[in-house]
Protein backbone atom coordinates (compact mmCIF):
# COMPACT_ATOMS: atom_id res chain seq x y z
CA UNK A 1 0.00 0.00 0.00
CA UNK A 2 1.69 3.21 -1.20
CA UNK A 3 0.54 6.79 -1.09
CA UNK A 4 2.13 9.89 -2.63
CA UNK A 5 0.65 13.36 -2.33
CA UNK A 6 2.33 16.58 -3.44
CA UNK A 7 1.60 20.02 -1.99
CA UNK A 8 3.02 23.53 -2.28
CA UNK A 9 3.25 26.37 0.22
CA UNK A 10 4.95 29.68 0.81
CA UNK A 11 7.98 30.21 3.06
CA UNK A 12 9.49 33.04 5.12
CA UNK A 13 11.91 35.29 3.22
CA UNK A 14 14.91 35.28 5.62
CA UNK A 15 16.70 32.11 6.63
CA UNK A 16 20.06 31.11 8.17
CA UNK A 17 22.43 30.15 5.39
CA UNK A 18 23.92 27.30 7.45
CA UNK A 19 20.61 25.45 7.82
CA UNK A 20 20.08 22.26 5.74
CA UNK A 21 18.44 22.47 2.28
CA UNK A 22 15.74 19.94 3.08
CA UNK A 23 14.34 17.48 5.60
CA UNK A 24 12.71 14.05 5.64
CA UNK A 25 10.34 13.75 8.60
CA UNK A 26 10.12 10.04 9.36
CA UNK A 27 8.11 7.70 11.53
CA UNK A 28 8.38 3.92 11.60
CA UNK A 29 6.23 1.41 13.45
CA UNK A 30 8.02 -1.77 14.48
CA UNK A 31 7.52 -5.26 15.89
CA UNK A 32 9.28 -4.14 19.07
CA UNK A 33 12.21 -2.17 20.42
CA UNK A 34 15.06 -4.69 20.29
CA UNK A 35 17.89 -4.86 17.78
CA UNK A 36 16.36 -7.83 15.99
CA UNK A 37 12.90 -6.26 15.63
CA UNK A 38 11.56 -5.21 12.24
CA UNK A 39 9.83 -2.28 10.59
CA UNK A 40 6.16 -2.95 9.75
CA UNK A 41 5.18 0.49 8.39
CA UNK A 42 7.00 3.66 7.43
CA UNK A 43 6.05 7.20 6.46
CA UNK A 44 8.09 10.12 5.15
CA UNK A 45 7.09 13.77 4.83
CA UNK A 46 9.57 15.63 2.66
CA UNK A 47 10.00 19.27 3.65
CA UNK A 48 11.89 22.06 1.96
CA UNK A 49 14.59 24.15 3.62
CA UNK A 50 12.02 26.21 5.52
CA UNK A 51 9.83 23.40 6.70
CA UNK A 52 7.11 23.50 4.07
CA UNK A 53 5.65 20.14 2.98
CA UNK A 54 6.63 19.01 -0.51
CA UNK A 55 5.05 15.56 -0.49
CA UNK A 56 4.47 12.51 1.65
CA UNK A 57 4.70 8.74 1.31
CA UNK A 58 3.56 5.72 3.30
CA UNK A 59 3.94 1.98 3.07
CA UNK A 60 3.24 -1.16 5.03
CA UNK A 61 6.16 -3.61 5.32
CA UNK A 62 5.96 -7.37 5.72
CA UNK A 63 8.35 -8.14 8.61
CA UNK A 64 8.35 -11.89 7.82
CA UNK A 65 7.58 -12.59 11.48
CA UNK A 66 5.04 -11.91 14.20
CA UNK A 67 3.98 -8.21 14.18
CA UNK A 68 4.51 -7.79 17.91
CA UNK A 69 2.33 -5.39 19.96
CA UNK A 70 -0.78 -5.24 17.76
CA UNK A 71 -2.62 -3.48 20.59
CA UNK A 72 -0.27 -0.49 20.05
CA UNK A 73 0.13 -0.17 16.28
CA UNK A 74 -3.00 -2.04 15.15
CA UNK A 75 -1.25 -3.99 12.37
CA UNK A 76 -2.11 -7.68 12.43
CA UNK A 77 -0.43 -10.58 10.67
CA UNK A 78 -3.32 -10.65 8.19
CA UNK A 79 -2.91 -6.94 7.38
CA UNK A 80 0.82 -7.40 6.72
CA UNK A 81 0.70 -10.72 4.86
CA UNK A 82 0.40 -9.12 1.43
CA UNK A 83 2.59 -6.09 2.15
CA UNK A 84 5.92 -5.64 0.33
CA UNK A 85 9.14 -6.78 1.97
CA UNK A 86 11.54 -4.05 3.07
CA UNK A 87 13.94 -4.84 0.23
CA UNK A 88 11.06 -4.19 -2.19
CA UNK A 89 10.52 -0.63 -0.88
CA UNK A 90 14.15 0.13 -0.03
CA UNK A 91 14.81 2.04 -3.25
CA UNK A 92 11.71 4.23 -2.95
CA UNK A 93 12.39 4.81 0.74
CA UNK A 94 15.97 5.81 -0.09
CA UNK A 95 14.77 8.27 -2.72
CA UNK A 96 12.65 9.96 -0.03
CA UNK A 97 15.61 10.23 2.35
CA UNK A 98 18.36 11.18 -0.09
CA UNK A 99 20.12 14.54 0.40
CA UNK A 100 17.96 15.41 3.40
CA UNK A 101 18.32 15.53 7.16
CA UNK A 102 16.29 12.76 8.78
CA UNK A 103 13.92 14.26 11.36
CA UNK A 104 12.17 12.09 13.94
CA UNK A 105 10.89 12.14 17.49
CA UNK A 106 13.62 10.22 19.36
CA UNK A 107 15.53 10.11 16.09
CA UNK A 108 18.19 7.68 17.24
CA UNK A 109 15.56 4.91 17.45
CA UNK A 110 14.08 5.53 13.98
CA UNK A 111 17.54 5.85 12.45
CA UNK A 112 18.80 2.63 14.02
CA UNK A 113 15.75 0.67 12.85
CA UNK A 114 16.13 2.04 9.32
CA UNK A 115 19.89 1.39 9.25
CA UNK A 116 19.36 -2.22 10.34
CA UNK A 117 16.76 -2.85 7.65
CA UNK A 118 19.09 -1.49 4.98
CA UNK A 119 21.94 -3.63 6.33
CA UNK A 120 19.70 -6.71 6.06
CA UNK A 121 18.98 -5.73 2.46
CA UNK A 122 22.74 -5.35 1.86
CA UNK A 123 22.35 -1.65 1.15
CA UNK A 124 23.04 1.63 2.92
CA UNK A 125 20.45 4.27 3.77
CA UNK A 126 21.42 7.59 2.14
CA UNK A 127 21.29 9.53 5.41
CA UNK A 128 24.21 11.67 6.57
CA UNK A 129 22.60 13.55 9.45
CA UNK A 130 19.59 13.31 11.74
CA UNK A 131 17.73 15.78 13.90
CA UNK A 132 15.77 14.76 16.99
CA UNK A 133 12.73 16.93 17.71
CA UNK A 134 13.11 16.14 21.41
CA UNK A 135 16.58 17.68 21.35
CA UNK A 136 15.31 20.65 19.32
CA UNK A 137 12.50 21.31 21.79
CA UNK A 138 15.11 21.38 24.56
CA UNK A 139 17.28 23.81 22.59
CA UNK A 140 14.26 26.06 22.15
CA UNK A 141 13.29 25.79 25.81
CA UNK A 142 9.71 24.81 25.01
CA UNK A 143 7.57 24.52 28.17
CA UNK A 144 6.53 20.90 27.63
CA UNK A 145 5.36 18.66 30.51
CA UNK A 146 7.24 15.70 28.99
CA UNK A 147 8.91 14.63 25.75
CA UNK A 148 5.99 12.75 24.21
CA UNK A 149 4.95 13.56 20.64
CA UNK A 150 1.42 14.37 21.84
CA UNK A 151 2.81 17.07 24.15
CA UNK A 152 4.82 18.66 21.34
CA UNK A 153 1.76 18.51 19.08
CA UNK A 154 -0.48 20.11 21.72
CA UNK A 155 2.02 22.92 22.24
CA UNK A 156 1.68 23.93 18.58
CA UNK A 157 -2.03 23.15 18.32
CA UNK A 158 -1.57 20.16 16.02
CA UNK A 159 -4.39 17.61 16.18
CA UNK A 160 -3.29 13.99 16.38
CA UNK A 161 -5.86 11.68 14.73
CA UNK A 162 -4.28 8.20 14.87
CA UNK A 163 -1.50 7.80 17.42
CA UNK A 164 1.04 5.08 16.52
CA UNK A 165 0.01 5.14 12.86
CA UNK A 166 3.19 5.96 10.94
CA UNK A 167 1.55 8.30 8.42
CA UNK A 168 -0.36 10.33 11.01
CA UNK A 169 2.56 10.46 13.43
CA UNK A 170 4.81 11.71 10.61
CA UNK A 171 2.19 14.33 9.66
CA UNK A 172 1.88 15.52 13.25
CA UNK A 173 5.64 15.74 13.59
CA UNK A 174 6.01 17.62 10.30
CA UNK A 175 3.40 20.17 11.40
CA UNK A 176 5.08 20.60 14.78
CA UNK A 177 8.57 20.72 13.26
CA UNK A 178 7.75 23.63 10.96
CA UNK A 179 7.11 26.20 13.76
CA UNK A 180 10.01 24.72 15.74
CA UNK A 181 12.33 25.24 12.78
CA UNK A 182 11.08 28.80 12.29
CA UNK A 183 11.56 29.59 15.97
CA UNK A 184 15.10 28.23 15.78
CA UNK A 185 15.81 30.33 12.68
CA UNK A 186 14.38 33.47 14.26
CA UNK A 187 16.42 32.95 17.41
CA UNK A 188 19.64 32.02 15.66
CA UNK A 189 19.60 28.60 17.33
CA UNK A 190 22.12 26.08 16.11
CA UNK A 191 20.22 22.95 15.05
CA UNK A 192 21.12 19.77 17.01
CA UNK A 193 22.32 17.80 13.99
CA UNK A 194 24.08 14.48 14.51
CA UNK A 195 26.05 12.22 12.20
CA UNK A 196 24.42 9.00 10.99
CA UNK A 197 26.69 6.01 10.51
CA UNK A 198 25.18 3.28 8.32
CA UNK A 199 25.54 -0.37 9.22
CA UNK A 200 27.45 -2.36 6.66
CA UNK A 201 27.44 -5.87 8.14
CA UNK A 202 24.49 -8.02 9.22
CA UNK A 203 23.85 -11.71 9.68
CA UNK A 204 20.30 -13.07 9.93
CA UNK A 205 19.19 -16.28 11.56
CA UNK A 206 15.92 -18.06 10.83
CA UNK A 207 12.76 -16.54 12.34
CA UNK A 208 9.11 -17.57 12.14
CA UNK A 209 7.00 -16.27 9.29
CA UNK A 210 4.03 -14.00 9.83
CA UNK A 211 1.17 -15.79 11.51
CA UNK A 212 3.35 -18.16 13.51
CA UNK A 213 3.23 -16.91 17.05
CA UNK A 214 4.80 -19.58 19.26
CA UNK A 215 5.42 -17.02 21.97
CA UNK A 216 1.73 -16.84 22.89
CA UNK A 217 -0.42 -13.70 23.06
CA UNK A 218 2.60 -11.43 23.52
CA UNK A 219 4.08 -12.58 20.23
CA UNK A 220 7.70 -12.06 21.31
CA UNK A 221 8.92 -15.64 21.78
CA UNK A 222 9.86 -18.47 19.48
CA UNK A 223 12.38 -16.80 17.20
CA UNK A 224 16.11 -16.49 17.40
CA UNK A 225 17.51 -12.97 17.27
CA UNK A 226 19.78 -11.75 14.53
CA UNK A 227 23.41 -11.30 15.47
CA UNK A 228 25.63 -8.22 15.27
CA UNK A 229 29.34 -8.27 14.67
CA UNK A 230 31.10 -7.24 17.87
CA UNK A 231 32.13 -3.60 18.04
CA UNK A 232 35.82 -2.78 17.99
CA UNK A 233 37.63 -3.13 21.31
CA UNK A 234 38.54 0.20 22.83
CA UNK A 235 42.15 0.69 23.96
CA UNK A 236 42.76 0.76 27.71
CA UNK A 237 42.64 4.22 29.22
CA UNK A 238 46.27 5.26 29.86
CA UNK A 239 45.46 7.42 32.87
CA UNK A 240 44.79 6.45 36.50
CA UNK A 241 41.31 7.00 37.90
CA UNK A 242 41.37 10.31 39.84
CA UNK A 243 38.10 9.54 41.61
CA UNK A 244 34.56 10.82 41.36
CA UNK A 245 33.37 13.83 39.44
CA UNK A 246 32.41 16.79 41.66
CA UNK A 247 29.58 19.08 40.61
CA UNK A 248 30.79 22.45 39.35
CA UNK A 249 34.28 21.16 38.60
CA UNK A 250 35.89 19.83 35.44
CA UNK A 251 36.14 16.24 34.34
CA UNK A 252 39.65 14.86 34.58
CA UNK A 253 41.40 12.42 32.31
CA UNK A 254 41.17 8.90 33.67
CA UNK A 255 37.71 9.29 35.17
CA UNK A 256 35.46 6.26 34.68
CA UNK A 257 32.26 7.19 32.82
CA UNK A 258 29.26 4.90 32.33
CA UNK A 259 26.21 5.47 30.10
CA UNK A 260 22.60 4.33 30.60
CA UNK A 261 19.51 4.62 28.39
CA UNK A 262 18.87 6.34 25.07
CA UNK A 263 20.98 9.26 23.88
CA UNK A 264 20.33 11.76 21.10
CA UNK A 265 23.92 11.34 19.92
CA UNK A 266 24.56 7.77 18.80
CA UNK A 267 26.03 5.93 21.78
CA UNK A 268 29.15 4.79 19.93
CA UNK A 269 29.93 8.36 18.89
CA UNK A 270 29.42 9.62 22.44
CA UNK A 271 31.74 6.94 23.79
CA UNK A 272 34.32 7.79 21.09
CA UNK A 273 34.32 11.41 22.21
CA UNK A 274 34.78 10.40 25.83
CA UNK A 275 37.67 8.10 24.93
CA UNK A 276 39.32 10.77 22.80
CA UNK A 277 39.10 13.17 25.75
CA UNK A 278 41.05 10.72 27.90
CA UNK A 279 38.18 9.25 29.88
CA UNK A 280 37.67 5.57 30.71
CA UNK A 281 34.40 4.33 29.19
CA UNK A 282 33.02 1.69 31.56
CA UNK A 283 30.47 -0.91 30.45
CA UNK A 284 29.21 -1.44 34.01
CA UNK A 285 28.82 0.66 37.11
CA UNK A 286 30.79 0.09 40.33
CA UNK A 287 32.00 2.03 43.35
CA UNK A 288 34.94 3.17 41.22
CA UNK A 289 32.72 4.82 38.59
CA UNK A 290 33.32 8.57 38.47
CA UNK A 291 30.13 9.59 36.66
CA UNK A 292 26.93 8.15 35.15
CA UNK A 293 25.48 9.81 32.06
CA UNK A 294 21.74 9.28 31.55
CA UNK A 295 18.81 11.27 30.19
CA UNK A 296 16.42 9.39 32.46
CA UNK A 297 17.73 9.47 36.06
CA UNK A 298 14.38 8.19 37.37
CA UNK A 299 14.48 4.97 35.37
CA UNK A 300 14.97 1.60 37.03
CA UNK A 301 17.95 0.40 34.97
CA UNK A 302 20.61 -1.51 36.87
CA UNK A 303 23.15 1.27 36.36
CA UNK A 304 20.80 3.96 37.70
CA UNK A 305 19.90 1.79 40.69
CA UNK A 306 23.58 1.15 41.47
CA UNK A 307 24.38 4.85 41.05
CA UNK A 308 21.84 5.62 43.75
CA UNK A 309 23.26 2.93 46.01
CA UNK A 310 26.87 4.04 45.56
CA UNK A 311 26.16 7.78 45.49
CA UNK A 312 27.68 8.04 42.01
CA UNK A 313 27.22 11.51 40.46
CA UNK A 314 24.70 11.63 37.57
CA UNK A 315 24.47 14.13 34.70
CA UNK A 316 22.41 14.20 31.51
CA UNK A 317 23.78 14.01 27.98
CA UNK A 318 23.70 17.78 27.38
CA UNK A 319 25.66 18.52 30.57
CA UNK A 320 28.16 15.80 29.71
CA UNK A 321 28.64 17.34 26.27
CA UNK A 322 29.52 20.64 27.91
CA UNK A 323 31.95 18.95 30.30
CA UNK A 324 33.71 17.20 27.41
CA UNK A 325 34.72 20.59 26.01
CA UNK A 326 37.14 21.22 28.88
CA UNK A 327 38.57 18.04 30.38
CA UNK A 328 41.41 18.56 32.84
CA UNK A 329 44.68 16.80 31.95
CA UNK A 330 45.76 13.86 34.10
CA UNK A 331 48.47 14.44 36.68
CA UNK A 332 51.51 12.19 37.17
CA UNK A 333 52.71 9.41 34.90
CA UNK A 334 50.24 7.75 32.58
CA UNK A 335 49.54 4.14 33.51
CA UNK A 336 46.99 1.66 32.29
CA UNK A 337 43.66 2.08 34.04
CA UNK A 338 42.36 -0.70 36.24
CA UNK A 339 39.65 -2.85 34.76
Describe the structure.
A seven-stranded mixed β-sheet has the order 1-4-3-2-5-6-7, sandwiched between helices. Helix 5 (133-140) runs parallel beside helix 7 and helix 6 crosses helix 7 (166-187). It has helices at 70-73, 77-81, 86-97, 107-120, 133-140, 149-155, 166-187, 267-276, 302-310, 317-324; strands at residues 2-6, 22-30, 39-48, 53-60, 101-104, 129-132, 193-195, 256-260, 280-282, 291-294, 314-315. A hairpin with a 4-residue loop joins strand 3 (39-48) and strand 4. It is an alpha/beta fold and 339 residues long. It is built from ten helices and eleven strands.
User: H/E order of the elements?
Assistant: EEEEHHHEHEHHHEEHEEHEH
Low-confidence stretches: 5-12, 206-232, 333-339
- Going by helix content, strand content and strand pairing, the class is alpha/beta
DSSP strand (E) fraction? 15-25%
Main β-sheet: number of strands, strand sense, barrel status?
A: 7 strands, mixed
Kindly state the percentage of residues in helix.
25-40%
| Lateral strand order in the biggest sheet | 1-4-3-2-5-6-7
Secondary structure: elements and pairs:
Layout: E1 2-6, E2 22-30, E3 39-48, E4 53-60, H1 70-73, H2 77-81, H3 86-97, E5 101-104, H4 107-120, E6 129-132, H5 133-140, H6 149-155, H7 166-187, E7 193-195, E8 256-260, H8 267-276, E9 280-282, E10 291-294, H9 302-310, E11 314-315, H10 317-324
Parallel strand pairs: 2-5, 5-6, 8-9, 8-10, 10-11
Antiparallel strand pairs: 1-4, 2-3, 3-4, 6-7
Amino acid sequence: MLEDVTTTASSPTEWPAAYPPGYAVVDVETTGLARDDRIISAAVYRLDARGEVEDHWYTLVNPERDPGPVWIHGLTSEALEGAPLFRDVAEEFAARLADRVLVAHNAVFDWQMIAREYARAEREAPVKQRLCTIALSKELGLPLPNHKLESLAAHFGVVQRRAHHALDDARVLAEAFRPSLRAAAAGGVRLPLHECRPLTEWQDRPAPRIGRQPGGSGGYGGYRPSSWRPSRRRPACPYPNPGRYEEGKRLKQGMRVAFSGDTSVERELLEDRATEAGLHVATSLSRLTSLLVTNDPDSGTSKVVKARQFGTPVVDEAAFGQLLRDVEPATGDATAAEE
